[in-house]
Design goal:
This protein is mainly α and 429 residues long. Helix content is 51%, strand content 7%. It is built from 18 helices and six strands. It has a three-stranded antiparallel sheet with strand order 1-2-3. A hairpin with a 2-residue loop joins strand 5 and strand 6. The model has no long low-confidence stretch (mean pLDDT 94). The chain binds carboxymethyl coenzyme *A (CMC).
Length: 429
């Protein structure tokens, strides 16, 4: 949609730039001709004022704490939908009819097994490797196993690659977990739904019957919905940038997974739980609040703050409710970590430092407690995030590839290095 124009005066030259309006949210100033007309670039490290693309998938209003997938509020999807329905919505733009949903579930379910040779590929990793290291490696390796779905110019191959990744990510994540604890891999069981199947692949052992707890399965499914997409965050932008060069989809998702691993992004759920464990008791909280406020101390309250949300992260609210449901179901009455989390949240939300900087709990603040109660070790938290975010990455990658105006992403820079100079032979330096 096109709106009015804006004008920029640079060195006495006036440049007219179109203002493009979105369906909701901030408009953008189209600066695509800025360099050719003024010889200057814009400078926006961290991209706080830059829209890198046009997208119809996910919308966030950070001031109001709103998150919409294809227009639907996250609260409604988490309450009424399931994860595969959310996957369909993100990929195709509309909620599925009953027959579309059944067909989609069937197609995803029929791709859950990984090539048997992948199991041998896993043997190359050290047993103590972090599951995210194993995920980055094994997702990238999929391009070596599934050559018949790496041609990005073929819509059928793109679709098959998308299905494969959504379907196989739980299998790979469960294998990464089983590998680190030295237990045999558990094959997928297609009579189970997506999330129950994942729980079984993680926690079943051949020696015993395993019965999926429906409350835990539903809670984890909701956690997957909450993590499914989040517009142009660091890992999604990584997937788009990698994909813009024409790289195959498995390589792009491996790149996104690598980016997600960082503690400022997907690694924060692991870091948040470690922080709660380090704080240990409610009495220690003031000391950690003081550390978080101290400019000379690198410590930050993990699970607090967000680049976009300057209000309560809507996902954190649903997550908090889910945490209570899971702890109730498991009969965990007094979890000291939960006590620390609730009190930490209460103190931080009434502290002027956090109020002024608009630092609210984000999704990662409560997710760690929930996943730990379900039996996942902290090292698996980010792998679970990657599993759930895969559909968002794929939907964004697919949108980009299908856009006829798509070009390779190539940011520019403000060069502050040495001007041109002559080479000095080593003996004269
Ligand atoms: N604890 C203490 N102070 C903080 C925190 C925090 N968690 N987060 C931001 N601040 C302060 C920061 O020191 C800065 O202060 P000043 O203006 O005086 O320099 C101000 O708030 C703005 O911070 P920023 O680093 O410029 O903000 P950003 O938008 O670049 O960073 C963030 C956003 C999420 C990386 C950051 O808030 C953070 O490091 N939070 C902890 C890690 C975390 O929970 N990450 C998960 C994000 S949600 C899941 C996901 O999307 O992956």
């Amino acid at each position: 949609m096109t709106g009015s124009n804006s004008q920029l005066n640079v060195d006495g030259k006036t440049l007219d730039m179109a203002i493009r309006k979105g369906s909701i949210g901030p408009s953008v100033i189209d600066i695509a001709k800025l360099y050719s007309q003024t010889g200057m670039f814009t400078y926006d490290p961290g991209f706080t004022s830059t829209a890198s693309c046009e997208s119809q998938i996910t919308y966030i209003d950070g001031d109001e704490g709103v998150l919409l997938y294809r227009g639907y509020p996250i609260e409604q999807l988490a309450e009424h939908g399931d994860f595969l329905e959310t996957c369909y919505l993100l990929l195709y733009g509309e909620l599925p009819t009953a027959s579309q949903k059944a067909d989609f579930d069937y197609r995803v379910t029929r791709h859950t097994m990984v090539h048997e040779q992948m199991a041998r590929f896993f043997q190359g990793f050290r047993r103590d490797a972090h599951p995210m290291a194993v995920m980055v490696g094994s997702i990238g390796a999929m391009s070596a196993f599934y050559h018949d779905s790496t041609d990005i110019s073929d819509p059928h191959q793109r679709m098959v690659a998308s299905m494969r990744m959504i379907a196989k990510m739980p299998t790979l994540a469960a294998m990464a977990y089983k590998y680190t604890i030295g237990q045999p891999f558990v094959y997928p069981l297609n009579s189970l739904d997506y999330t129950s199947n994942f729980l079984r692949m993680c926690f079943a052992v051949p020696a015993e019957e395993y019965k999926v707890n429906p409350v835990l399965s539903r809670a984890l499914d909701r956690i997957f919905i909450l993590h499914a997409d989040h517009e142009q965050n660091a890992s999604t932008s990584t997937v788009r940038l990698a994909g813009s060069s024409g790289a195959n989809p498995f390589a792009c998702i491996a790149a996104g997974t690598a980016c997600l691993w960082g503690p400022a992004h997907g690694g924060a759920n692991e870091a948040a739980l470690q922080m709660l464990q380090e704080i240990g008791t409610v009495e220690n909280i003031p000391k950690y609040i003081a550390k978080a406020k101290d400019k000379n101390d690198p410590f930050r309250l993990m699970g607090f703050g967000h680049r976009v949300y300057k209000n309560y992260d809507p996902r954190a609210k649903i997550m908090q409710k889910t945490t209570h449901e899971v702890l109730n179901e498991l009969g965990i009455k007094d979890d000291p970590l939960l006590d620390v989390a609730i009190e930490l949240e209460r103190i931080a939300l009434s502290d002027s430092y956090f109020i002024e900087k608009k630092l609210y709990p984000n999704i990662d603040f409560y997710s760690g407690i929930t996943l730990k109660a379900m039996g996942f070790p902290t090292s698996m938290f980010t792998a679970l995030f990657a599993l759930a975010r895969t559909v968002g990455w794929i939907a964004q990658w697919k949108e980009m590839i299908e856009d006829p105006s798509q070009r390779i992403g190539r940011p520019r820079q403000l060069y502050t290095g040495s001007p041109q100079r002559d080479y000095t032979p080593i003996g004269r330096r």
